[in-house]
Inverse folding.
């Protein structure tokens, strides 16, 4: 298996623009997690899905952030409009049941 | 609430020495405690994990201990090598999600 796949790997955008991050979990994994990592706040869980259903979105910072999982092999995290404080590395991770959680390579987002 | 405290925030050791990182968690219902290593610019990768039915687990130079009564767990790295230099994160499972500690920057000096 190729592991968790994320795209793009790097994104530079201007404040106010819409940003869409994409994730393909490992096949067969029924949990998908979106994290944000910054120096100041560490690894924060934004939202997670089980069987494509959002379970806990309490970590989503505000209404500018939204996430979807239309099927078992694809999820998106959207920021609209983006702000400079959204600059961070965004990780997607997946797992099944109580097994090990695997992280994707991350998307480094820079909002100018 | 869901909280994981990790200490120290930075740790410098001489090559060949041991390194110990400690974490505490708040929910006695937590049963799964993984440790992740993150090298600069890379993703976090699982290095070892422990479940609440055991008190210690070893994998070569790495070991993890768990004290459920005190709600703390520790990572032990023996015979450290320069390639062990990285950021290490502990985590505790709350429900179906992992809550991570703030991380420890480990520097191994050769």
């Amino acid at each position: 298996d190729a592991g968790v796949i994320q795209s793009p790997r790097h994104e530079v955008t201007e404040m106010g623009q819409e940003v869409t991050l994409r994730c393909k979990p490992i096949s067969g994994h029924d949990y998908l997690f979106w994290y944000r990592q910054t120096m100041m706040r560490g690894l924060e869980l934004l939202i997670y899905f089980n069987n494509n259903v959002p379970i806990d979105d309490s970590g989503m910072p505000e209404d500018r952030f939204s996430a979807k999982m239309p099927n078992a092999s694809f999820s998106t995290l959207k920021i609209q409009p983006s702000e400079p404080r959204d600059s961070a590395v965004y990780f997607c991770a997946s797992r099944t049941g109580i097994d090990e959680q695997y992280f994707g390579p991350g998307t480094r987002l820079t909002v100018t | 609430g869901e909280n994981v405290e990790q200490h120290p925030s930075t740790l410098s050791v001489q090559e060949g020495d041991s390194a110990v990182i400690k974490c505490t968690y708040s929910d006695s219902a937590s049963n799964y405690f993984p440790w992740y290593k993150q090298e600069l610019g890379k993703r976090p990768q699982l290095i070892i994990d422990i479940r609440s039915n055991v008190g210690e687990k070893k994998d070569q130079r790495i070991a993890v201990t768990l004290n459920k009564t005190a709600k703390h767990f520790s990572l032990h790295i023996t015979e450290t090598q320069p390639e062990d230099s990285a950021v290490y994160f502990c985590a505790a499972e709350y429900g179906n999600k992992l809550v991570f500690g703030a991380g420890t920057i480990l520097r191994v000096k050769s």
Q: What stands out?
A: Chain A has a mean pLDDT of 95. The radius of gyration of chain A is 13 Å. The longest strand of chain A covers residues 42-50. Chain A is about 0% helix and 55% strand.
